[in-house]
């Protein structure tokens, strides 16, 4: 039987969810294919959303009209802003999320979305047709023998593609949490011209709550005032959340001895696993080997849900056998009688080379085929959701005959993430970090709406009502920044400020005081008695914009210089080998990546400033 759908989304994880919602909300007939509809929006690893740099991604997803932040706000068990002891650029929100409730919220949202059909089926083959020297998408087949005609396919297979789970010397054909693997699709993708590689990741054991002695653990509470991820969430409603505590525990020399004595039993060290793992989220045995001088490693015990007695031990990922997992766990303080409900495992899976993608996330040699999430070599829910949203938006815009949405590095973390993938590629599971952004002071999580909501509005994912609220918020921020420039403090007012602060004889505006590193917006309340009552999310942005104004001007000037390079478009059919003056390495790299703009070309490893000058001259771009 031959059926039709305009867009087929293959996979129902965080990338697939955002892709399907974006397409459907933009009026495109969309079908989301999932191996199990009970796994939609699943969190197979840690039960959290956000974190360092990842929180920035969630705010940006929301600003563009995505779903992750809105759903996370509804199921928050605990909220904390990380890195508060550092500068505002790296402040990152992270929430413990109720894992099952998150899935319920996501599934119900998908079910209620117009233009979207959910189908539990394994996609076993993509169907392509000749398109000049390349191929184009025309359909797909499922394991049930159904054939669908479609114009766009978004591959968001996560860690399910020909996946294997490893525990000790045992390997099982399975996806995360022991679910069904997708074993047939890889061959079809490779036959269509995709470059396939093998990556791995892992997850820690789950522990029965009643078996842990919490009196021996360090408690970690949530923050007093919660600012939501989503602009659609009432700020006041988040303050009524009854937050759950997390706990901290440390490994010790006994833990390390058990691991080292049995390390050859780990699938990571026995040679069973060939895939490349994430450098920034290593297994516990990898940590012990790589950091042999450390006597302990920090672990976090986190709740899985409000009505769930399982706990997640972050930082204790391993592929050691079950009996060894039991022994090493019980060396931890408070875990002498701990009971494991789910053993840790490593998982290996197929993914593709992201340098084969355009910045729209469409494949260069198979038109209509998009990649998103771990299929593109990334690691993390937030990275996946970001790519799914952009792939979904661009698939829909292409079908509507509209200009694509290409986010640049200077637009924010999503632009940086995608530019890194399609320009530089990755030899290991890619994780977003604040250090990857050269404009991170401008790309704070508190101003994601200012940077990206106009894009969400342009493509059609931000409603009139929400955009009006956005404009109102931006006006409040602008008005308050202007107001505090006109409110002056006298020398005698220094007694109301932190100790040691001196106000000059001629006085100082509240804005001038706020520019001092040691003074916050709240510190000036006593000398600014007529200040309006504003939400914390607004006063936070006012404080950062004023405090870092000089740095922000310099970064904006640099962005303007970089933006000019992005304006120079490079034709897709350039024969770089025919351009005299380019070095051999530059010719090879440019021919492989096929950069869309001169700016992208300048960021390719192996392409020098001299090569860029040659392109400018030879192509008449000056």
Q: How would you summarize this macromolecular structure in one to three sentences?
A:
This protein is of the alpha+beta class. The chain contains 19 helices and 25 strands.
Overview of the molecule:
The chain is of the alpha+beta class. The protein folds into four domains: 2-203 and 349-459, FAD/NAD(P)-binding domain (3-Layer(bba) Sandwich); 206-346, Elongation Factor Tu (Ef-tu), domain 3, CATH 2.40.30; 464-555, Orthogonal Bundle (Arc Repressor Mutant, subunit A), CATH 1.10.10; 567-618, GidA associated domain, C-terminal subdomain (DNA polymerase, domain 1), CATH 1.10.150.570. It is 32% helix and 19% strand. A six-stranded antiparallel β-sheet has the order 16-17-18-19-15-20, with no helix packed on it. Strands 1, 8, 9, 10 and 22 form a five-stranded mixed β-sheet that branches. It has a five-stranded parallel β-sheet with strand order 7-3-2-11-23, covered by helices on one side. The longest helix has 21 residues, at 464-484.
